[in-house]
TrEMBL record:
Reactions catalysed: AMP + ATP = 2 ADP
Region spans: NMP: 30-59
Places the protein is found: Cytoplasm
Keywords on record: ATP-binding, Cytoplasm, Kinase, Nucleotide biosynthesis, Nucleotide-binding, Transferase
High-level lineage: Bacteria, Bacillati, Actinomycetota, Actinomycetes, Kitasatosporales
NCBIfam families registered for this protein in UniProt: adk (TIGR01351), PRK00279.1-2 (NF001380), PRK00279.1-3 (NF001381), PRK14527.1 (NF011100)
Entries under InterPro entries matching the protein: Adenyl_kin_sub, Adenylat/UMP-CMP_kin, Adenylat_kinase_CS, Adenylate_kinase_lid-dom, P-loop_NTPase
Domain of life of the native organism: Bacteria
Protein's UniProt keywords contain Ion transport: no
A single GO molecular function term of this UniProt record: ATP binding
UniProt organism field: Streptomyces phaeolivaceus
Stated name of the protein: Adenylate kinase
EC category: transferase
Length: 220
């Protein structure tokens, strides 16, 4: 299957993408991984992307699209892929359509992870990270440390990252609503959107997504 995964910040896209890709035996292609891999390998696209990033500028759509196209043409993506973080806007979605048509391919589904806005704010603004090891993550509601402000694992100080503040989260949501959310309507017009609730335990959301994708596949 060829799938695009969409949803607001805090919807759990990265987690779900990893589980779904494993269950469907297709590669998980995330924009972040694409950028890191190309920059690390110092590919021409990576150098170009870094030149914009070093100046604090957004990487142009055509560079992101070229990276995604190159990744989708790799042998492990021959029978499908799951795109996470791309397309990020309607112009990227249109370019993806053109790229797929050129390769005589098409998308099978666009999985929309739906989460109420206040839940997104609660999820992200409640995160606390250990200063000693950023892999140690806690939450003021969902994963409380035994002692407030102290990491259970190493005793380090727990803090809230600047980009996890409520004000920043709400700004990120505004960007999502303005730039990314319109692709849902774009794909709805093609009959590709499958919307599921992303509330509940991770395993439940994965099961919900797999069942919805199977129904979509069976209907075709």
């Amino acid at each position: 299957m060829r799938i695009v995964l969409v949803g607001p910040p805090g919807a759990g896209k990265g987690t779900q993408a990893a589980f779904l890709a494993q269950n469907l035996s297709i590669p998980h292609i995330s924009t972040g991984d694409l950028f890191r891999a190309n920059i690390s390998k110092q590919t021409e696209l990576g150098k170009l992307a870094k030149s914009y990033m070093d100046k604090g500028e957004l990487v142009p759509d055509e560079v992101t699209i070229a990276m995604a196209k190159d990744r989708m043409e790799q042998p492990d993506a021959e029978h499908g892929f799951l795109l996470d973080g791309f397309p990020r806007n309607v112009s990227q979605a249109e370019a993806l359509d053109v790229t797929l048509q050129e390769e005589s391919m098409n998308l099978d589904a666009v999985l929309d992870l739906e989460v109420p806005e206040e839940e997104v704010v609660k999820r992200i603004a409640g995160r606390r990270i250990c200063r000693n090891d950023s892999a140690h993550v806690f939450h003021v509601t969902y994963k409380k440390p035994k002692q407030e402000g102290v990491c259970d694992v190493c005793g380090g100080e727990l803090y809230q990252r600047d980009d996890d503040s409520e004000e920043t989260v709400r700004k990120r949501l505004e960007v999502y609503h303005t730039q990314t959310e319109p692709i849902i309507d774009y794909y709805k017009a093609q009959g590709l959107v499958v919307t599921i609730s992303a509330l509940g335990p991770v395993e439940e959301v994965t099961t919900r997504a797999m069942e919805a994708l199977k129904r979509e596949d069976d209907d075709k």
